[in-house]
């Protein structure tokens, strides 16, 4: 099995702040990882590094067989499908959905004078259908609901047929129905053997799609625990990650967590 990501003692610092502290992490082909952690834990920094947007301050980051710092990131980035709120903000509001997706072939946001062939357009259309956005092909991005925008962004991230798909909080801002739709879409992607390795960032265990295989839990820039979901997703690890005593349940492959209530003796 090929290794997709291999981080060895990766540290990221900005001034006096340590954003990631000696992270060791391996992602293999076929893995579907959830990255969980509270606000400010370092999740976005971690996936920015894994998508070759930033470099480590120290340590070694291997991505798709290349080492960050010794590779042209402009050749590496097209091999990684990446969605984030920061990218979504750069998408012109008057761009139609098909163009939002097809322009990923050139790694640009916003169509200008690039030439795309019919195969590119066909692929963009097929991907929008695959993520349940078939009715949105000709709608401008600015007129879409938050959930619809998330679907278009996932189709865009898949456009280059990436070897690694990284989704930074795709469920943020969605209502209950939107979240459930997204979880189903992600579950279909996760269980498709042709899908690339997937890394999905979230704050909530309720957003873990059935079919995901591994979890990495971050707290204060450090890894609390990482490994197969069945072994690592425990009340103890989750409580440490979020800094409070939590009760965890799982039903039909879906997780739920809530604060453990104290019993008062009278
Ligand atoms: N350039 C910077 N200089 C100093 N600190 C920074 C810088 N960028 C990020 N940080 C801090 O690093 C920490 C990790 O940030 P990051 O965005 O990776 O967290 P996160 O887990 O994605 O948080 P959230 O869930 O709130 O999005 C935060 O405390 C943040 O304030």
From TrEMBL:
It comes from the Bacteria. Keywords: ATP-binding, Nucleotide-binding. InterPro entries: AAA+_ATPase, ABC_transporter-like_ATP-bd, P-loop_NTPase. GO terms for molecular function: ATP binding; ATP hydrolysis activity. The keyword Nucleotide-binding applies. Residues 5-245 form the ABC transporter domain. This is ABC transporter ATP-binding protein. It comes from Nocardioides marmoriginsengisoli. The lineage of its organism: Bacteria, Bacillati, Actinomycetota, Actinomycetes, Propionibacteriales.
